[in-house]
Amino acid sequence: MARVLPSSLTPHICILPSQDLEELLKSSALPSLHHILQSFSPLPQVTTRTTALTTVPHASFALRFSDLTEIEAACREDEEQRATRTIDWIGDRIGKRCAKWVDDFEKMNDQDVARTPWWDELRRCAEGDHIPARDEGWNHPMSIILAVSTTAPNPLQAITALHSRTLDFPSWVDVTHLIYTLIIHPKNSPLSDEEAGALFNAVRKQYGLHTYLLSLELPSPPPPPVSIPALVPRLPPPTISNGSADTVRPDLKTTQTVPLNTLRMSEQDIQQTARFAREFVTMNLVPWMEKCVIEWNEAYSSSRRLPSRLFSSTRRLFGTSSTTPMHAITPSLPGRSSTYAAPQSSVSGSTIPPPSQQRRLAEFATILGDFKLAVAVWESLRKEGKGGSDILPLLIAPSPAVQLHVSHALTTIHPQSAELHSHVQLRALLYAVRWESTLTIGDFLSDTLEGERWLVWAAGNAEEPPAALLLAHAALLSVRKNARRRAALWYFFAANRLEKCGIKPLTMYFLRRAHELSISRPDKLLSPSFWMSENKQPSDFEGFDAVMSGIEHPLGRLLYTTGDVSGAVRHFLGLLRWSSASSSPLAQLSSHTVDIAKDPSNSDQVFLEDFQVAISHLKSVSGEQARLADVKLPLRFVVPSQTCVRLARDSVEGEQSEWETREEIWSSFWKHRGKEKLERSGNAAVEEAFWVDITLHNPLETEVTLANPTMIVESSSGDAAWIRDNIAIETTKDTILYANESRTISIAIKASKPASLVITGVAYDFLGLLPTVESLARRGRRLQDTPQQRQTITYAPDEFLKLNVEEASQELAVAFVDDGPLVLAEGECKRMKLWISNAGSRDIGEVWVVPGPEDQLWIQPLDSGEGSATGIAWKTWRSDNKVVPPRPYSIPLAEKLVAAGSTEVTVVLHAGRKQKQNLSLLFIYREAEGSPFHCTRVTRSYEVVQCLQISTASHPSHSPNHSFSLSLDLTNILSSSNVEIDQVTTISANWTCSPLVELWPEPLRPSQSTRILFSATSAGDCTSVNAVSAFVSRKMTNVLHGQVIAPDDPPPLELLCGHVSQTFAYEPFVAHFIMDARRIAVSRTLAQSHPQIPTSSYPSIFPLYNPLSVDFVIFWKIPSEQRFGHILVSEIALGASHAVLREVLEGVESAKVKRSMYAETQREKTEMLQAIRDSEWNAEMNPVVVIVKDGLVREHDFSQGVCMVPVEFTIRNHSLSHPSRFVLRLDHRQQSSVCRHHFPAPYCGRTTFRGLLAPLQTTSVLAQLCATRPGTYALSGWRLETEVGEPDTEGGLWQVRHRYEQRAVTDDLSSIVVSDLSRL
């Protein structure tokens, strides 16, 4: 069974009727003859034969009939102009009918059917093109029927006139066609049946056997109409206009252009006409075509054979010869009776040749179903670049090659260019229609062919209705393949092009279909864990957000222009949920968003402007009572999680986390003293305003106005009327939010009666046009109490802001007496006064203040004055050595604060690091013991500036009286004030520091510096050092092995204090501030070095003081500004340490510890191990130091011989606990590089010295330098090898802990000078 070809690939039959026949048909109420015969196409069950004489059955064999004069006139029209008219005609037909199509189609349940009315209309219009073209021969006439009737005065003369008529075709129209004569003999003809038969015989004798006598009744009046299939629409001829060169000739009649769906013929006439149509096809047209194919195929095959020269050479070589002359291949056409080959006129004198015989062979073979021959010829044409790629997809089996043929066919007619001509668009449309209508839907949509993409390729970048409908049909087919997002994209492209053509019903339908497909969820199953990790519900799918704005925006504008203003308002408002999504490809391709594509940040502004215009128009038409109740704002401006209630006694400043930290400090402090709880939230008081701080965030890229923002409040004490009478809610002024701005606004609420209030939402007018209410509900906690709740995500009911309003009973008001700007110098001690009053009705008997972890505060007792202390400076200071957490301070009260009572409290603030900061104080108070606590907050901002630049340094001392030398450098960095240094105090657990110089008596002027030198001598007792080291080692072992940290305290220390000035009087709060500053410095260092260790564990792990550390306290004052204060510097650790934690670390590293499957856990352990290895408690240094006594000048008379000069080397062990062995080797070749110009020291005698040094022991060795000539001798040529031993080993065996090797430093300049007396 042959494949059914599209109607555009069927034989084209032209009919030339005589004048009498036209009058006969008109009188019988019948259309033109070509319309009548078209009603009988296609013919069922037609059989053809191939060149191999194989029969090919055709279930349907279609024909196309046209009026010859119309075809001749149409051939004279320019092809580009006709293509333009065709595209406009198709768009006009679709534009007029699409409204009803859309209405009927939307009523269907399944809108994804294979066919749509607009696609069928497009296909019929494309296949209705019957005008011959230059580049293919399908529309070239295959047969011409010359029709007359016997009602003519002389029928034979009429037939002769038709046969002698010259065809008015251009030169490029193929002249190979079958001439057929049709004689219609009506019943009312003046000729009898015998005479009509004689006429028929005469015509057959004169013009050949291709003649037929059709006898019809044609009764009068005409019979009732009979329904017939609708004829395909055809392009009407161009209208006649004066001076136009493209109009039809005036002598040609205008044919009927409106196809009829009925035919007024009797049953007998219908049967006679059908018999004629079948006989014409089976007895005349098909045999004639088969004959042409056989002859043309012989010529085609001959041209493809091997050249005759090769055969002649073969015969000559093998001894044979041919005497038969070579046959000249000349295609013989049928005789005059069947083929019309008369000269034809050329309108423009063009010499364009008609389609080649090879192409006609391929076309004829395709029509006859000889696909084997057709494919071979089409392939040959394709290889020669003469077409064929458009037909091969219809004939060959589905394979990847088919897609290549399609691509080649489309690329040939329209290469990638900026603009497609009308002729190219029409040709691509015809190709696409042929492919889609011929291939089965299964093959067309298969993954091998992907035929829906062919339609998109055929549409190209054309912006005409046919191209848009190609995209729409491709989208429809993609839906059937479940490629929904691709279908949405193509629907959008189709709508975008149709909108430019003004076809709004289809544009809106395509946009709605794109919208429906974009919001449909992909059929992909995701793990439930995905939704849990993303904190979303599976039903929270809102569509493909990257394209939604590009679809909804033009749809909203179309709704507005078509009068659906309410729908447009909803669409424009819905666009805001896709904020800034116009940067997506779809939005940039939209015609209305060209300016948006240039600047995507303007998308929200365009959406808002359209919404304002639409809703303003709606209100102007419908009034203020416009139906906007169901119009909801799709985005939120209120952030419920950051909305809070602020009472009048709460501070506006300060982060919430800071206050939570202070509340935790209080809870930790009080849990060991009582069970009373702190009422953190507090209640509002009657007739006292409180505020709701609302955090607003604008997610849009443009500014918006929220007009008249206010609160929605509910109360269990009464209904809405009661709330209006007793609750005063402020309505603030309009709030303008700029693009992506976040802002907090406060709305005041005041209650005149006690009540329990629930703040449920915020109300405002969006842009002053749309009343909106946003809920302040916060999602409840995740429920996991039951197995069902653990398996299915379940949340507790939503939570709202709740507040109780009660009569004011207990309230404390606190404020600074002086609340002006505060600028402090670093280390300054500032006295400030606090005014505390009882603003409630009940007494207050206990008040505490909780500062921040790094706030240094001292509360002055009631019985102390403001003068300085007169006691003698302390020599020792006992410390518990604990990094105690910050603690609250009790406010001394002389008596209870009664209602309206007040008092003043003096506090001293010690300024810490240089920065801008807030002094945030949390005051805790209650009536009496056993009563619950209440709180209030006070905040004061201050800035700390640096006044002194301080640096310290230490190095081993050359003096035998002390071990180390310290230097303290001070620089005044103020611009205009002098700074006096009153006192410098040193604090250490193991080192006694003494000043080597007196304090500079004069003040330090701006940019002036001073240096104070100290000597450090060990106390000689290493008990404290060993005790603290053992404590740290034990605690670190517990930490590294993950054991429980016991809450024991580190060993206490007796701190030794040294003072530069012995007459300086200390304030009573100095000791408190020094300890506090040390705690803050240590806590800050530990938090940076050991972030994995909880802060609460610091007191049980780390001591406050390292026994080897030395702290400086510099007391200063600025008399001109009446400022004073002190600065703690803790940067120096003296003495030798011996990696106390080495064994602990090695034990952890060598132990077979179970590794964690989580890389984060393993990384944290590694970081903790490295932090402990680098900590001050695991420090390690060479304890032995060599000091060379240099600078000596020796005089000698070298005339008496060489000079022997003793050189003294002092070797000191700085370790407090470990003995050391040393080996000193003298070698002048090891001298430093900076002493190359000095003579090397030529030692003689003993050059290697060994010894044993106990802790803190010093020894000296003498070496002999043998000077042979005067000069300067470098003393840097030495090397010291040291072994540090373990103390108190069993049996007195020496155990090496560390080994070191030491040489003179590279810049060592120690030397000795030997002068010659003989030269004096």
Automatic annotation (TrEMBL):
This is ER-golgi trafficking TRAPP I complex 85 kDa subunit-domain-containing protein. Pfam families: Ig_TPPC8_C, TRAPPC-Trs85. InterPro entries: Ig_TPPC8_C (IPR057651), TRAPP_III_complex_Trs85 (IPR024420). Residues 1195-1279 form the TPPC8 C-terminal Ig-like domain. Residues 335-351 have a biased composition (Polar residues). Residues 322-356 are annotated as: Disordered. It comes from the Eukaryota. One of its GO terms (cellular component) is TRAPPIII protein complex.
